[in-house]
Amino acid sequence: MPGKIVPPSAMMDDEVKPPTPAWSEEGTSKDLPSKQDGLKEKLNARRSFKVESQARLFGFTDPEEIKRNIKASMVGEEIEYDVFDCYWETGIFQRIAKHYIFENLTLGVISLNAVYIAIDTDWNKADPLTSTGTRDLQDSPAFFQAMEHLFCIYFTAEWIIRFCAFKNKCDCLWDAWFVFDSIMVILMVGETWVLLIVMQAMGMTGGSPFGNASILRLFRLLRLARLLRMLRSLPELMILIKGM
Question: How far is 126 from 244, CA to CA, in rounded Å?
Answer without folding.
Answer: 40
